[in-house]
Amino acid sequence: MGRSKVIPDAGNYGYEEISNFIALAGISDFVEERKASESDTEDSSSDEESEIDIYESFKEVRDALVETGKENLELKKENARLEEKVGELQKALQAEKDLNMDNLNIMLEKMEAVKRADDITKEYFLEKENSRSLQAELDQHRKQLKMLTGTKELDKILSLGRVGKSNLGLGYSTGSGSTGKTVTFVSGGIAQDVVQAETRSSA
Q1: Spatial separation of the C-alpha atoms in residues 97 and 112, rounded to whole Å
Q2: What spans are recorded as compositionally biased (Acidic residues) (predicted)?
Q3: Which is nearest to 47 in space by CA: 63, 58, 34, 30?
Q4: Domain of 101?
Q5: Which tens digit of pLDDT belongs to each residue from 75-110?
Q6: For residue 1, is pLDDT > 50?
């Protein structure tokens, strides 16, 4: 008597699982054929029971291998799914790292811009202070120049109506051309007494 066997789809199992299944199926066929050939002979009932036990044992082993193959296949699928998930997480992590790096670069650029602004501000105030100092010095030079210009104008006014060259004036002193007389400046009261004394002596 034959038994119908279900051959698993090769696409659902690995090569090793299919090979084990085929080997067990072959053993099962051998046992069944032996049982069929010896069924017509007069064997003892104990031999038949022994063969049935062997067949059942092989069947259990075969079923266990098939179940193990299914479990291995599920584990492989789960492993592939986990690997895909890990790949997605790695991509997300890399994207996050790139984003953080971009943010860090932007922050560094902002800090550099703030530093440049501080340097420019310090330079501005320094130049402004230098400008004030230069402006004060320029004002001082202008005052001195104005004073010198005023002196020359005064000399020009004093020289009006004078005949010939004269070295008298602001900034000049008498030279060898003087008459030798000494001019003495006195107060008004003393000058009046001198005039009265000269008048008496003349009389």
Answers
A1: 22
A2: 39-52
A3: 34
A4: 10-106
A5: 999 999 999 999 999 999 999 888 888 888 999 999
A6: no
Contact, 83 vs 35, CB < 8 A? Answer: no
Domains: count for the chain: 1
Q: Is residue 146 part of a domain?
A: no
Amino acid, res. 121: T
Q: Is the pLDDT of residue 13 over 50?
A: no
Q: Is residue 114 part of a domain?
A: no
> What pTM did the predictor assign?
0.33
Task: Please report whether residue 90 resides in a domain.
Answer: yes
Contact 28, 62 (CB under 8 A): yes
In a domain, 88, yes or no: yes
Closest CA to 174 of 182, 184, 186: 182
Give residue-wise pLDDT tens across range 38-65. 555 545 555 666 666 777 888 888 888 8
Query: What's the DSSP call for residue 181?
Result: P
Q: What is the mean pLDDT of the chain?
A: 71
For residues 51 and 65, give the distance between their C-alpha atoms in angstroms, rounded to a whole number: 21
CB 54 within 8 A of CB 30: no
Distance CA 103, CA 61 (A): 62
Q: Report yes or no: 21 and 69 within 8 Å, Cβ to Cβ.
A: yes
